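Journal club side-thread
Mid-discussion, someone asked how the predicted structure for our own chain would compare to the paper's figures. Pasting it here so we can look after the session.
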Amino acid sequence: MAQTIRVDGVRKWYGDTHAVDGVSFDVEEGEFFGILGPNGAGKTTLLEIMEGLRKPDDGEVSLLGMRPWPRNPRLLPRIGVQLQASSFFERLTAREQIRTFASLYGTPPAAADHWLEVVGLTDKADTRTEKLSGGQAQRLSIACALVHGPDVVFLDEPTAALDPQARRNLWDLLREINNQGRTVVLTTHHMDEAELLCDRVAIMDHGNILKSGPPAALVRGLDAPTRIGIETGTVPVDGARQLFPDAEVSDDGVSLTVSTRNPAAVLSALADRNALRGLAVRGASLEDVFLDLTGREYRA
């Protein structure tokens, strides 16, 4: 498939801090690509360089076959950008806001009103943006990024302020625009979001890409145990430790959990003892991959 984005050896320094330190990757046409990393990993800086909002100190970026920096007027109608912090024109209602964005691209007001409906803000159309909740402002920001039908969409933590229902609705919307052939580049702290939506992800830390690939492939490549849980009391803890000496057994008073690299044998032994009450089986996830690569220490 054709490359929509090519990042080659990109670097960005702020004094002694290497925010982006020699990053290279490609994003194919129609791909849903995720950039993951802890706070301060360089995700937003990298995204802004790709969007043409920030000049790289070294390396090259190609977006739709053109350089995004210096700011390229030919690219602006073809990309949609939702920034990490929402910023709107002052004293405008939600309807006036999105119609203003639409007018900048020659998009008719009816299309703008349609996007208010898509993100569930029709009932807030006459509310001034400073009166919107954080989640409502986030949804309006996303609608403004999509109102002109861009070929490439950049979303910086789009669901950070959304409740679970709004998150799920936005996931459906993002799948739909991606299924229409648009390329989507996403940064997020939600590993379940990346695992569900992204064709490929790149995990960053300290300005470097540590590993990239399809989420399922990254998970399969992690040497992690399978966690098998049953209801507490179904099997005594000491009995489970004797039964599964090569596994780690714990009990929190609600579930007895067996962490094992031989799940078939554990499940078979529990089934033989009719001890499957409350059974839950959990393999590794993208979150496990993320923590394995970036560590578990607190990041400010």
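Post-session note: The mean pLDDT is 93.
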